[in-house]
Amino acid sequence: MDQIARKLGLKTDTTIFFVSAGIMVIFLIALLIAPGPIGDAFGAGRAWIVTNLGWFFIFGVTSWVAFLLWVALSRFGAIRLGGNDAKPDYGNISWFTMLFAGGIGTVLMFWGVAEPISHFATPPRPEVAPFSPEAADDAMGFAIYHLGLHTWAIFTLPGLAFAYFIYRYNLPMRFSSVFYSLIGDRIYGPVGKTLDVFAILGTLFGVAVSIGLGTQQINAGLTELTGVSDSVTTKVLIIAVLTTVAVGSIIAGLDSGVKLLSNINIGMAVGLMLFVLVTGSTVFLLRSIIETFGIYISNIVPMAFWNDALAEYTHEEGGWGWQGSWTVFYWAWTVTWSPFIGIFVARISRGRTIREFVLGVLFAPSIFTLVWFAIFGWSAMEIDGIGQEARAALGAQAGALSDAVSESVPLAMFAFFEHFPFATLIKGLAVVIVAIFFATSSDSASLVVDMLCTGTPDPGPVHQRMFWGISEGVLAAMLIVLAGEAGLTALQQVITVVGLPMFVLVFAMMFALMRGLSQENLSEVEVGKPPRAEQL
Predict the structure, then answer these.
(1) CA 499 to CA 517: how far, in whole Å?
(2) Whole-model pTM?
(3) Burial 452-476 (b: 16+ CB within 10 A, else e)
(4) Burial class (CB in 10 A: 0-12, 13-18, 19+), 492
(5) pLDDT tens across 480-514, in order?
(6) For residues 85 and 447, what is the distance between their CA atoms, to the nearest angstrom?
(7) CA-based nearest residue to 176, from 452, 514, 468
């Protein structure tokens, strides 16, 4: 393999690179040969996981939030990532825009209207009446629970573990380095390489699912604007075009490509949000933003522990209930991103203290997410009609958005903009924002996958980075082909199955980090020097 790598001009760990690439190629071939059986297998796997292990996902993420807050507020919070004299490589604004755009920008565009409206029309709790004020409060509470502190804890825990072990101990920039305190020098052997290969494959699948969701929304927007067909062929063409854009950003690198696209895109997204605020029911929305903070704060603890345990007795269909299709899917999907976002956030966070890192990564994006959902979600529910009197006054227009979402989730944002001035222009802008979020997620993931292979923050050869960018696009296209018309359901099945083993590994990171931090009590441990084996 070393000879092949030299002939191809690669600068990477050949075992990690070729095994990861080989498994991915084998899976793509299998998708081409037998898409039906593979789809059935993922469907059966998802059903088993949701029924038997959904509680584990919910308990796990809540425990990560508690652990991270404890670490930040403890004496360990003063530890600086990268040495006591290290300074942050990026200013606060660029740092925020990069981690946000590379994180869940596409998710907010996809679910900003669709999720609140879905919960508004079909409340998670069986005792809540659809379209009622209580349903509206619950819709906002659950939407922000899914995309607030808990989602960012899934990114923050791996990010902190990466930053701590890589910068504090001068270990390679690889997934396996996080487990140094548990397995020691075995991170350099077969065990460590297996962990690295798995992290690369999980990242590729997680980003591919996000690309698939983003592509569905772009296709829906283009159908609204131009009448282009909403089909698998169109989606594959969209992936091809935007993968080309992402590869261009990969070639430009982190500072010139990812940073520039992130800053542009977050500015456009904020502009879109302010447009809805100003042209919508401004006073109502300003009041609702403040109220939404209260809804989130008062509900976060019960929601964080709610497992729908009485679903068998409160739902006609019995079984697991609502959370299997929402909360478990979110956590399984997000955790597949965690190596990618974690190492990416670690890469741009060198020089910050643990306290600054944890509080910044947890709270800054969560606050933005809350404001985003408050503006888009409450606007959407007001348009649909909150309560019997409002819906009676709207007449035939009542429930228009709910009907649009039930017909096509990717269409939700564009149906929403029909109720605002300059609808065509705003829809076009929304398509551009989703497309750039798509590109920033893809190029960030490609750079990170390359780092996981090389073990250094320095970029590999251009064609090596391009390979991973193209691979993500091809994998996303194949998942779209596999998904067919039932796109969202099929993508949920794939990511839930892939997310389970990754979830277990991230859970283990918490214990690895706790053990690593405990070594800070030892006076022999120097900054940038790992503890001796007998100290672990």
Answers:
(1) 27
(2) 0.86
(3) bbbbeeebbeeebbbbbbbbbbbbb
(4) buried
(5) 776 555 545 666 677 778 888 889 999 999 999 99
(6) 27
(7) 452
